[in-house]
Amino acid sequence: MTDVFFMERDPYAPIRHCYPVSKVLYHGKSPYQEIMVVESPHFGKVLILDGVAQCDERFEFIYHEFMAHVPLYAHPNPQDVLIIGGGDGGVLREVLKHPEVKRAVLVDIDKEVIEVSKKFLPTMACSFDDPRAIVINEDGYKYIQDYEGEFDVIIVDSTDPVGFAHVLTTEEFFKYVYRALKEDGIYVGQTESIHYHVEIVRRVQKALRKVFPIVDLYTAVIPGYAGYWWTMSIASKKYPVREPSREVTVSTKLYSADMHRYAFLPESFYQRILNGDYSF
Ligand code: SAM
User: What is the per-residue pLDDT across 92-148, written as a single tens digit (0 to 9) for each?
Assistant: First the structure.
């Protein structure tokens, strides 16, 4: 065991996670954020942006599988997928497991996150050379404004909603997402935890409901994220999202057809979150 620790600076969490560190593998500053990769006993390598742990080698599969496979299996034939953020490559890896996908465009504002992930996190950043992957370094808010009826699924895998990531949780952005989706498209975005961030969850859900006819919330327990009980907000133009629409065939560690159903909150609890009578 080591005596050196990294203490997280999560702008929204009322608690600080503290990771034992056996080695600092990278520490730099891009034009957008401070980037760090540390080696931690138990977790393996941990990617840290602006003091907040984004993913660790041991448990990253949970977040990445649920971000990718819930929307992709809710859709009957996802061919064109847009990922905004996701520079560590974990969501891209999962998206490209679907043979239906012909094109996965990843738009991360910060190319240095991608370069650092390729070098230090090769089990996550393992799909950037796939011929179906297209990588663009631009602000996702700007990028999406140029598209109409282009994508089957849009996944927003961004950092916490502060600074340049905040705009990705606004009604204005969701209007662009709606327009960029095909007529039966599906959107998903990470919306923080139920217990520490219920106001953010409610705000995003309300904004999505102003734009999309079908909106829902599903969750996964992520050991490295403050509050653990993490939410994903999903919105669909046409298809119901609580069930996979086709047989689950991709190889995963946790996601499956029954875990897809299980991930969605019971209707009564979901309504309490929306109505604001689950607050503390
Ligand atoms: N899984 C992580 C989590 O939930 O905290 C997020 C991982 S991924 C590394 C987040 C990425 O979002 C970062 O690389 C950051 O550069 C990118 N990002 C944040 N805001 C963005 C924006 N407006 N446009 C494009 N990429 C953005």
Answer: 999 999 999 999 999 999 999 999 999 999 999 999 999 999 999 999 999 999 999
Cα 93 from Cα 202, distance rounded (Å): 30
- 159 marked ligand binding residue: yes
End-to-end CA distance of the chain: 37
122 - beta bridge partners?
Answer: none
Give domain limits for the chain.
Answer: 5-56, 60-275
User: Which residue from 29, 108, 166, 174 has its CB within 8 A of the most atoms of ligand 1, so it is best to mutate?
Assistant: 108
- Catalytic positions are 157
- CA gap 59, 24 in Å, rounded: 19
| CATH number for the domain whose boundaries are 60-275 | 3.40.50.150
How much distance in Å is there from the Cα of 85 to the middle of ligand 1?
Answer: 4
pTM (2 d.p.): 0.97
Could you say which DSSP state residue 144 is in? G
Question: What CATH code would you report for 5-56?
Answer: 2.30.140.10
